[in-house]
Amino acid sequence: MLIHPWDEATRAEWQDVLAHVDFGQLVTAGHVDRYPVVVPTHFLYDGDATVLLHLARPNPVWRALDQDPHVVLALTGDYSYVEAAWNADPGADPDYGVPTSYYTGIQLLCTAEVVDDPEQKAEILAAQLAHFEPPGSTRQRPSPTHGSDRRQLPGIRGLRLHVEHVRAKMKYGGNKTADHRTEIAAHLAARGGPMDAAAREHLLRRMP
Q: Contact, 61 vs 158, CB < 8 A?
């Protein structure tokens, strides 16, 4: 992912995103049938350097991890298309403007640890369920000794991702002047597309 200096997200920014976003794409360095494995998945980030998740045992991801434990957990959000005329430099012919995309992109570069111990798998599940299940849910305490859980736990494998590096980008017109960004913000507000409001908020928040 190309990250220009004006697009680089601060640690506080990407930490805030990960406090609210818990679904992404797990991409393997190892290949299966000549290609990386890409798994859409929920995950639980601990706010520091560990990500927890679990996947079904038949998933091809395990074959890729046997080859190479390095993975990227990638997520993209708050994206919006910036029309060519909006993005044209002030004074330039808008017919020759170059369109662009605004978006947040975060990539956690990790080493994956496969977890097969029943107790540890139950701990990973408990942590995820505590995060995802609604308050008062009775399904927050999986146990390897409970009959149903004991039968189902063999069908999954846990993953503990150890975060080694983070690439984070918030591309919202950081190379434009304040006046130009204000104009683009007005266009986004007027269009009101599905993620235009979120992109506009980032654009205005990141202005000097």
A: no
